[in-house]
Structure formats: C-alpha cells, structure tokens
Amino acid sequence: MNKRMIAAGVVAAMMAPLAQAGVEVYGAAYVSLDFNNNNDPAAGNEDSAISLTSYDSRLGFRGDEDLGNGLSALWQIEQQVDFDEGTAFSSQRNTFVGLVGGFGQVIAGKHDTPYKRATSRLDIFAESKGDFNAIIGSVDDGNKLFDRRASNTIIYTTPSINGFSAMLGYGMPDQRGDDDLPMTSRQSDRDLYSLNGSYSSGPLYVTAAYELLNTYQNNGDSAEAMKVGGSYAIGPTTLGAIFESADEGGTDNQRNAFLVSVAHKLDGFTLKGAIAMAGEKDSEADSGATHLALGVYRNFTKNTEVYAMYNLMSNDANANYDLTKLNSVTGQDASALSFGINHKFSSK
Rounded to whole angstroms, how far apart are CA atoms 315 and 286? Predict the structure, then answer.
C-alpha cells in the first residue's frame, strides 16, 4: 500500500473521533521575509540582515459541552508554532477551561489579560513586524509590560448588554514564575489586576482599560497602565486611535503614548497605515520614539492574504524601542521591509 495512503489513513483515524466529539482543530501561519536594518554602529556588528520570521503562528484545539439549563463548559489548548525554525509547541498561548451561560463567562488558565483584549481589534498590523506593541503596552528598552498573556489567571467576561460589556481578570501571586509554596512574602504580593470596559455598536467601538502589576519589579515596585481607544468605520475606511499612560515603576518612570491608524478596502486590497508615538519618561530626557507602519494587503479568501509592509522605528538619543522581533540599538533608528503571508485554517 502506498505510504502516502497509509499516512492519510492514520491522520483520518486521528481526526474522526475529534470531529465526532465536536472538537475544533484550528491554527494560523503568519510568516514574512524581512529586510532588516538597525543602524548598529558597533565595530564588527552587521547593521542589516535578511530574515524569515514567524509571528505568533499557532496550532490549537478547542471545544465545548452543553451542561443544560443554558450552561456550557468550554476549553482550549493553544500552542505556538515557529514556521521559520520548524519547531512546534515552543511556548504556550491561550490555554484554559471555563463555564459560559447567561451570567457571562468565567475561564481559568493562561490567557490574554483584559487590558490586552481591550484594544486587540485596533491592532491593524497584528502578527507582523508592524504590531503596535512596538510602543503600545511597552516601555523604553523593549520592555513589553502590559499588552501580554498572563499565567495562573481567572477572567470573568460579562454578557453584552445593549453593546456594553466588561472583563475583569486576576492573576495569582508571582506572575513571573511558580505560584506554589514555598514562596517569599514579596512573591505572595506579586499579583495582577486587569480590567476593561467597552461599547460596540455598528461602526463604532470604544474601550477603556486599566492594569496593575503589583510589586512586579525586582525592587518591589509596582507597574501600572491605563488606556482608552476606539475605532469608527466609514464605508470601506476604518479609523482607529489609542491613548496610553504607562508607569514601569521606580522614580519618574511614567510615559504617555498614542496611536492613530487607518485601513481602507479597495477591490480586494486593503491599504493600511499607523503611527505611534511614545513620549519621554519623566526620569529621562530624549527617551521617546516614533513608530511608522505602512502596508498593502491582498485578500484572496477570508483565510489567506499576502502583504508588503514597511516599518520604521525612530528612537530618540536615549530611547531603545524595538520593532517586533527586531532589536534596536539605543538612539538608533530601526527599519524593515517585509513581504508576508497570513493563512488561517480550521476543521470547522
């Protein structure tokens, strides 16, 4: 018997019980060819390179079960897949179990914080070199503190009432490691509080969020952030904006940032542009940065698109903000020209 037929039979045998149990197998491949430059002035270091990059590509399994009386159990297991290096299950993504009903939804596990979820739909360059986390959610030195995924977390999502909804999340002590005993007194205080509220109706979406990383830093300082954002669609054009104030802890380490974006659909193409600016930290002059992203996307189907994109991170003299998977050099600009493909798949 042909080896390919045998392999196909094995895969079919594995998938059949999953389908019968109502389990969805899903995933996504986000890959680009990048021409990178970070203007590294150090002798002996290259300041430009070509790379193949996988951005948050994934493989997941999820399902639910009707428990009766309007109550259901739900679960998800999602793992990262690095297409550029050919490795799977390299790190955990949103993985949880929970209950959903008329009261809303409660989940427990590892998941995007409510702070992150508040503006996820406003990231028009998500899963690419242009992801807005180059600045939004980050503080100088490439420190992405706030727009992130948290372990040991319980999240409650309210039902949507006339377009209004909210999420509340609590991360167990010691977000940086094991939350089991034994732990030090300072570790026992290192928990996370995250919440958001949003309104969505037709072309309008608005949101606000707050997050506290309690005694998160090694010196015992807390980090906190708040943001407001929204988008509005006018025919084929969607406009977006975010304002964020973030404090990484310590003395005068607060900075403000804002982002504006536009996406316009035109005959199977989507033209995108965004600019984000981080202000100086109170404790450090010339520590701001500007991120510019421009892209042209060609949509073949609802699951597959290709794109060309240009990104520029302009750092002030004492700033070190990075592009996604491209490390900057303090005080130097970083740029990338990317050609990518985004493909999603599902067994349903």
Answer: 9
Does position 145 have pLDDT exceeding 60, yes or no? yes
SS3 220: coil
Of 308, 316, 310, the residue nearest 333 (C-alpha): 316
From the list 174, 129, 72, the residue with the least C-alpha distance to 342 is 129
Tokens of 202: 């037709």
Cα–chain center distance at 169: 16
Dist CA 142 CA 136 (whole Å):
11
Residue with the two structure tokens 């039979």: 9
Instruction: List % helix, strand, coil for the chain (3-state, nearest 5).
Output: 10, 55, 35
Dump pLDDT digits (tens) for 86-109.
Answer: 888 878 899 999 999 999 999 999
pLDDT of 10 reads 44
Q: Give me the torsion for CA of 305, 115, 166, 68, rounded to 10°.
A: 70
From the CB of residue 22, how many other CB atoms can be counted at a distance below 10 Å?
Answer: 12
Which residue intervals of 69-158 are DSSP H helices?
A: 114-118
- What's the token pair of residue 29? 């491949």
The structure tokens listed for 323 are 């592009």
98 φ/ψ angles, rounded to the nearest 5 degrees:
-170, -175
User: Where does the pLDDT of residue 311 fall: very low under 50, low under 70, confident under 90, or very high at 90 and above?
Assistant: very high
| 3-state per-residue secondary structure call for 51-93 | EEEECCCEEEEEEEEEEECCEEEEEEEEEEEECCCCEEEEEEC
Report the C-alpha gap between 281 and 288 in whole angstroms. Answer: 7
SS3 state at 9: helix
Q: Yes or no: say if 239 and 274 are a contact pair by the CB < 8 Å rule.
A: no
SS3 186: helix
The first and second tokens of residue 233, run together, are 């669609």
Q: Residue 239 has what pLDDT?
A: 98
